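HUMAN: Now follow token order:
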Amino acid sequence: MVISYKNTGFLGLALLMLTAMACKKESNTDYSVLPVVQGYITPAHNIEVKVSAQKALLDTNAYGVAITGLQLKVSDGTTSKSLTEDKSGHYVLNDLKFVKAGLTYTLEFSYNGLPVSASTTVPPKPSGIAVSDYTQVIPVMTFGTTPTEFVPVTLTWSNAAANNHIIAFEYTESIKQVMDSRFNRDTATNVEVNVAKLATYDLNRMTFRYYGNYRVILKRVNVEYVNMLNHSSTGSTSANLTNVPTNVINGLGIFTAFQADTLSNYLLVKSEL
């Protein structure tokens, strides 16, 4: 079970991979000439794709340099549509009806004389999300006393087909209420849990770092997203730098589809006191 903490949420995952891509060991592939793609599509939303150059090893910027002037196209197998560049390296298709569940979408463009492409299939929308309680009480551990038993809140959902899911907990408070003074820095407040092909998840004491209300979002995702999430959780060590996951041909990064469903009420995480 992979738990990650982040401030940027779902669309920030590819950012976690840029440093690893910049630090790749030498191989037969010249990764320095490959574009880095970040594209996430879901029904009822416009398509947005970021394309940037791979970060240099000592580059301290959050992203690599944006690649401008590209001609991006996305096809659903029947219709092909062109994206427009609304700002440097950011390409959009303003069509809320183009992305539909069950269809396979292919992104294509050329860069440095090479055809770059990636394909993903839009999964069905998740359903049946429910929670055993809308309040998760965190017992207080006091020296010399017997701590109160932790009773986990359980989330469940429908998953007869054993699809991949993640659960995102988005912190909604404007003023942070830290649980432990050891985390009094400006650490990430949002939580993302890879629950794989399960249909249930029990919260645990270590799931959250902050008290307060969280928006709970269940996301049905594809294997390419899970592969990248799992890889990013292992860190960029010398053992895994050569195998950064990507579903982009002649490129790096990710082009993937997902669908989401949100719990009707916020989840309150609070101290027992």
Notes: The helical segments are 15-22, 223-234. The first strand starts at residue 2 and ends at 6.
